[in-house]
Amino acid sequence: MVEVLPIDEVIPELRAQVRARGCVVLQAPPGAGKTSRVPLALLDDVTGKIVMLEPRRLAARAAAERLAQQLGETVGQTVGYRMRGESVAGARIEVVTEGILTRMLQSDPELPGVGAVIFDEFHERSLNADLGLALVLEVRAALRDDLALVVMSATLDAGPVAELIGAPVVTSQGRAYPVETRWLDRPLRKDVRFEAALADLVVQAVGETSGGVLVFLPGEGEIRRVQGVLGGRLPEDCKVRPLYGALPFKDQRAAIAPMVAGRKVVLATSIAETSLTIEDIRVVVDGGRARRARFDPGSGMSRLVTERVTRAEAMQRAGRAGRVAEGVAYKLWSRGEDGALAAYPPAEIEAADLTGLALELAAWGSGDLPFLTPPPEGALSEARSLLEGLGALRDGRITDHGRKLATLPLHPRLAHMLVRGGKPAAGLAALLAERDVLQGGPVDYAERLKALAGASGASTPRQGALARVRAEAKRLAKMVPDRPALPPEEYAAFAYPDRIAQRRPGGAPRFILSGGKGAVMEAADPLAGQAFLVVTDTDGNPREARIRTAFAISETQLREIFADRIDALHLCHWSRRDGRVLAREQDRLGALILSDKRWNNAPDEAVATAMLEGIREIGLKLSPAAERFRARVALVRAQDDTLPAMDDTALLATLEDWLLPYLTGVHSTADWKAFDKLPALRARLTWAQMQAVDTAAPAAFTTPLGRQVPIDYDGDAPQITLRLQEMFGTTRHPTVAGRPLRVTFLSPGHKPIQTTMDVPGFWASSYADVRKDMRGQYPKHPWPEDPTQADPTLRAKPRK
Asked: Which SUPFAM superfamilies does the annotation name (predicted)?
């Protein structure tokens, strides 16, 4: 008897839309039977092979086996699967991991022999799925209007997808079996450890229900810790099975296989959210956390962050409990907290490292694809910059080297390392592509290579991961030619040219990376004292990343590897600390300074240009004469705006224009303070402008004795200061630029005794009182009754 699934009700409509429109979006809750039914239902409606994408290897195998089982066949007859490093041919249906479709399209965009492409679990919005959909849409528009397209999801916001591909939405309302949701009575206290709280909830679920239990955790580490906390707390017939991507395949199969007797508790990551059906699961316990990769384009590093699940993810997880029978979903949060969850997780394209995507777009020959979510321009620009550095792109176009990298099943960094290093680099490439094979290992990556070679060490290797690495290394070695072997740190430098680390001065192990970012290491680590490292992994902190794994490398090796990237620079720069221009000769690798010595014969112009930076920091520091000059210019400029502005802002903004030619010999703060700025300021004016200034605002007033007294233009009126006796005989008040001078009279002892802007008026009024006071103090100096009739003088009365 054929099992009836909720999806069966809409299969006729789905088939009709595929025949009529060639494309459709299928929205159905978890457990409705999308993966199991749709490919088989389309066999009679599609000419050619049906390719169905799955987000994970385990799900792809399981889906292929389930489809073949419904046909009464084994995998390899009607149904096959293909993933990196493994494939079983199928005559009509091929279940593939998402990256495989991209390779198929890049090899031949027409997809010969393929009649339909099905995107399963599209709600996960992986980078490969988004790229694959964009490529398929372009192929359908340009080459294959007969290519059928089905996008399926349980929790996807279907509207935008349907609009993008121009397809109707077919919706299945039913779930295979109902699921009861049980929340916490109140939010979890902050002082309660996550693993302990989740283990308590698992024990409660096991005690209140029957059947298998599926527990969702963010990662392998949490799985191991919860497994430890559960030890001895579950009934004897309960078997705890971990399930995560890096687990050996036989252990993954053990987790999804039905129990012959007793119950199982599966501790799983998000790998179990997909179309994968885990036999005999009746209960879900959701820890409410998800781990996502976040890429910082500024640092060029990714880091994993643990976040709250979204409502869509929680719905997908709860649906696992209703796959084979009525179920119960326990949630490690309260009903009130549920409403505050975000609706959907971010698409991977919004937060991931886009280097692989940028390479695929370059290989395709167009970046203008119909993406559901366009890639962020900043992250895409950084990715292209890295590819330029790896030689994969030149002027934005893919190179022959880049095409080689695109064909390899590795991140472009590691593909570049493999192409340059050949077969001897295959082991390290496979090792770097895998999660860390050592549990709590040291920073020195050489320890991982020892583990790969079978040598024992202080850290315990993950044997399953090592087996996968060895198998992958053999496969990668077949893809590249043989070359002479190099030290592993040199291979790593090929892959991470932007992560060469140089130790900073000081006691703490702090490093500067060649890409410009900072990094730190535990002081007790054996690599902490190394001058140079190749950093292979960090925690991704954008401010100062913690180094997780690295190789030690020598300066000699770096100079040989990066001979074409090391810049021999002659630099002059202002040192705020030293208060002077420093001239240095340096060899630089990105942000690293490999050598640094004094540049003894630095050109005057280079020193002067660097000095300008110091002047902008120090300030103009004009002499009194220079201040008077620019005040004169400002006075005249008020009537003639053709004269240049000489305020601080204008002068500092144009230092290169008026000051640079005069700075020879000026190297320091002391030199600048002693430097006469007046000639440079005067040179800003043409001869005609200088004549106009001298006429309208002369630098000095000529006294009746013919002496030049500087005019101060800095106040609200131009002013002079001189001895009273020097102005005897003056009957008209002196003026400048049509404005009266403010005159300050001094006593013979050079003390101010009167300020006036009307000298004739002073003679006629206040002078008598001044004369009366001053005659007694300075009897040797003349104090005539009528100063207008006296001769100007600076002398005392002649002796009798």
From this structure: P-loop containing nucleoside triphosphate hydrolases
pLDDT of amino acid 686: 93
Residues composing the chain? 800
Total count of domains within the chain: 5
**Which residue, of 350, 385, 417, is where some domain finishes?**
350
| pLDDT score for 1 | 46
d(CA 90, CA 42) in angstroms, rounded, equals 15
In a domain, 453, yes or no: yes
Q: In which residue ranges of the chain is pLDDT below 50?
A: 1
* 176 touches 322 (CB < 8 A): yes
DSSP 455: -
Q: 120 with 256, same domain? A: no
pLDDT at 300: 60
Please report the pLDDT score of residue 415 as a whole number: 95
- Chain centroid to Cα 61, Å, comes to 36
Assigned domain for 367 exists: no
Identify residue 218 by its one-letter amino acid code.
Answer: P
Q: Which residues, at least 6 apart from 490, have a Cβ–Cβ distance to it below 8 Å? A: 553, 557, 561
> Residue 581: inside a domain, yes or no?
no
β-strands 460-461, 438-439 pairing: antiparallel
CA angle 176/182/186 to nearest 5° reads 155
pLDDT computed for residue 275 by the predictor: 58
In a domain, 571, yes or no: no
In this structure, how many other beta carbons lie within 10 angstroms of the beta carbon of residue 381?
Answer: 13
DSSP string, 371-400: -SSPPPHHHHHHHHHHHHHTTSEETTEE-H
Q: Is 71 exposed, middle or buried (CB count within 10 Å of its CB: 0-12, 13-18, 19+)?
A: middle
Type of residue found at 81: Y
The model's pTM = 0.77
> What sign results for the dihedral spanned by CA atoms 21, 23, 28, 31?
positive
Q: What is the span of the domain harbouring residue 773?
A: 700-789
pLDDT at 176: 62
